[in-house]
Amino acid sequence: MEMIKVPEAGYKIKGLWISGFQRRVTIHNILFPFKVVVSFIAALRLVKKFKPDAVIGFGGYASGPILMAASKLNIPAVIQEQNSHAGLANRKLSGKVKHVCVAYDGMDKFFDKDKIVFTGNPVRSDIIDLTADKRERGQKFFKLSPERKTILVLGGSLGARTINDAVINMLDLVIKEGMQVVWQTGKFYYDEMRNKLASYPQELVRAVEFISEMDEAYACADVVISRAGALSISEICLAKKPLILVPSPNVVEDHQTKNAKALVDQDAAILVEDNQARLLMLKEAIVLAKDDIRCKKLSENIAKMAKPNAAKEIVDTMISSIR
């Protein structure tokens, strides 16, 4: 995605021949050592040419060779770990960096506690202040009734099969209960889901491929359903919305479930397992939307986990590593 989004934002980007290491026997792992060596050499050349004062890695295999190169050239480096369960690349490289910026408590089980800086995850600033005016604009934008409770369903930019199927399976119940849905289907599933919605009242189900106006979507939502990616959770903490998390089972080390449980342990979200979502996801959302006291409690608790100044604190940490 970044190979498209970064140039669109007006910045140059260089790709490396690197991919993740599969935690099972697979033919792809045969090439992994060669990819590491080739990418490390390419990263050394890039870093020498660019001459940065500091390097920051946000986890994943793509940042590994660059952080290795920075360490080799004695350039200060910082890691930002987004999840509650640290990824393999960040764990392996943490000994070579000055600071590790984290978004969850208890990360000293993965990193040297003296290097940890609790910053949170950087998210878009327009989510911080969801006013009544913005809620009204969101209702107008998505053509929603102010009289109905709104369930916002997010499956990521590409989409999530389980979440999309769960919406279709229980949509009759949502309509019967007098509620409405704003639904980001994702790129891969949009056409399929639109076809399945042909017999439903369009004014009660607003299905879109992708939501750019996330501040307005959060503002008009009474309950949010989402995967448990680190950045999604960080956004919803700022939005202070009652939240149901459906962690993806298809991620490394099941880190989305660990992210979700970090909120559940603080009574800041409700967890629905992926294999139960088709049956329970929207039922839980309906029950929650009707319970104003429970919604208020979840909103208060998730707000306590918000870090609105995360981006600035990460930058400050990086600058301090140079001095």
Can you give a write-up of this model?
This protein is an alpha/beta fold and 323 residues long. The protein has 2 domains: 134 residues, Glycogen Phosphorylase B (Rossmann fold), CATH 3.40.50.2000; 179 residues, 3-Layer(aba) Sandwich (Rossmann fold), CATH 3.40.50.2000. The chain is 44% helix and 12% strand. It contains 13 helices and 10 strands. The strands form 2 sheets. The chain has a 6-stranded parallel β-sheet with strand order 7-6-5-8-9-10, with helices on both faces. Strands 1-2-3-4 form a 4-stranded parallel β-sheet, sandwiched between helices. Helix 7 links the parallel strand 6 and strand 7. 42% of the residues are buried. The mean pLDDT is 92.
Summarize the structure.
This protein has helices at 2-8, 28-50, 64-72, 88-93, 132-141, 161-176, 190-196, 214-219, 230-239, 255-264, 277-290, 292-303, 310-322; strands spanning 55-57, 77-81, 99-102, 116-118, 150-154, 180-184, 205-208, 223-226, 243-245, 270-271. By secondary structure, the chain is α/β, with parallel strands linked by helices. Strands 7-6-5-8-9-10 form a six-stranded parallel β-sheet, with helices on both faces. A four-stranded parallel β-sheet has the order 1-2-3-4, with helices on both faces.
